[in-house]
Automatic annotation (TrEMBL):
Pfam annotation, one family: PI-PLC_X
Record protein name field: PLC-like phosphodiesterase
Gene3D superfamilies per record: Phosphatidylinositol (PI) phosphodiesterase
GO molecular function terms attached to this record: phosphoric diester hydrolase activity
SUPFAM superfamilies: PLC-like phosphodiesterases (SSF51695)
Signal peptide extent: 1-19
GO BP terms: lipid metabolic process
Superkingdom of origin: Eukaryota
Keywords: Signal
PANTHER family named in the record: PLC-LIKE PHOSPHODIESTERASE (PTHR13593:SF140), PTHR13593
Length: 335
């Protein structure tokens, strides 16, 4: 009798725990497969702050705490004499430098260590380009490789499965992937993007840029023209975020994707903290909205302070802005 009672209690506790589990902040997402979940994602996630090339208002640590789960990161050589260590830079490191790639990965690892029910995706734009070994080294140095999921043929796992296996990080790169690092997925094998060059005032659609693949990046951000010294530069349009990032605007583009027979997985925006990204993503996932924000601990705050590459940013903020713009103009676009 006692054995039966204890067994029933144990089953009840397990069932209650499973029912109470929140995957990426919502228990309704746990049973969904990775390819059927929409993730709030930031474009040029590392490019933040008081800079004409910035696409975000706050750093990646703050984005994680707010509920962002997809990150677009651009890897560059620091300069022509430093080509072995990837840096997070926008267009060129003189213009916007967020510091070593591995340092930012440490911040993501700290978050994932402290939040065991969160699934995260990273998209690498490998502008170096760097080899798979060099990219992998940054993940190993940060201690983040332990979470990396290796894609397999067939159906994608559910978020709950990825969490249970503690393989909660999906990493894509547009160059440099090879079999030596099986978890570093070549994005052209898995992902298609909607157009990412949309001018202020233009409409968003869901036409693929390339052949249709299992996962979709829905780009939902705009650029504006900035004229300088006879040249025109495309820059992030922070003053349009309040209009672009509305629940209605984001869901309308997602509905266009749905009408085309595809599910948008990575809802990618600039200046995510303006507008209603998270409410829109809940609508796309067809789940009840609840705040995805996670508590920010003192340790996380300290880590953000120590690893935010403040020195390069401070230098840039006080640099002659016209010189910075001139460098951007030479390369055509900052957006």
């Amino acid at each position: 009798m006692l054995k039966t009672l204890f067994a029933a209690l144990a089953c009840g506790l397990v069932g209650s725990a499973a029912a109470a589990q929140a995957c990426n902040g919502n228990s309704q997402l746990c049973g969904k497969t990775f390819d059927k979940v929409a993730f709030p994602t930031t474009h040029n996630s590392y490019a933040y702050g008081d800079n004409i090339a910035a696409n975000q208002n706050v750093n990646i640590q703050a984005q994680l705490q707010a509920g962002i789960r997809g990150f677009m990161l651009d890897l560059h050589y620091l300069d022509s004499t430093n080509t072995s260590v990837p840096y997070l830079c926008h267009t060129l490191c003189l213009l916007l430098n967020d510091g070593p790639f591995a340092t930012e990965l440490q911040n993501i690892r700290t978050f994932m260590d402290n939040n065991a029910n969160e699934v995260v995706a990273i998209f690498i734009e490998n502008d170096g380009p760097f080899t798979a070994a060099q990219i992998s080294q940054a993940f190993v140095q940060a201690g983040l490789d332990k979470y990396a999921y290796t894609p397999k043929a067939g159906a994608w796992p559910t978020l709950q499965t990825m969490i249970a296996q503690n393989k909660r990080l999906m990493v894509f790169t547009d160059a440099g992937a090879d079999a030596s690092v099986p978890w570093l997925a070549y994005d052209k094998d898995y992902v298609v993007q909607t157009p990412y060059s949309v001018a202020v005032g233009s409409s968003f659609g869901c036409s693929p840029l390339t052949t249709v693949r299992p996962l979709w990046v829905m780009n939902h951000f705009v650029y504006k023209n900035f004229s300088f010294a006879g040249s025109t530069v495309d820059v992030p349009a922070s003053d349009s975020a309040a209009t672009v990032n509305t629940r209605q605007s984001i869901v309308a583009q997602a509905n266009a994707c749905g009408a085309a027979g595809v599910f948008p997985n990575f809802i990618t925006v600039d200046f995510f903290d303006v507008g209603a990204l998270f409410q829109a993503v809940a609508d796309i996932n067809n789940v009840t909205y609840s705040s995805p924000a996670t508590p920010q601990t003192a340790a996380a705050t300290s880590a953000a302070t120590l690893t935010s590459a403040a020195a390069p940013r401070a230098l840039l903020r006080h640099a002659a802005p016209m010189a910075v713009l001139a460098a951007g103009a030479l390369l055509g676009a900052l957006a």
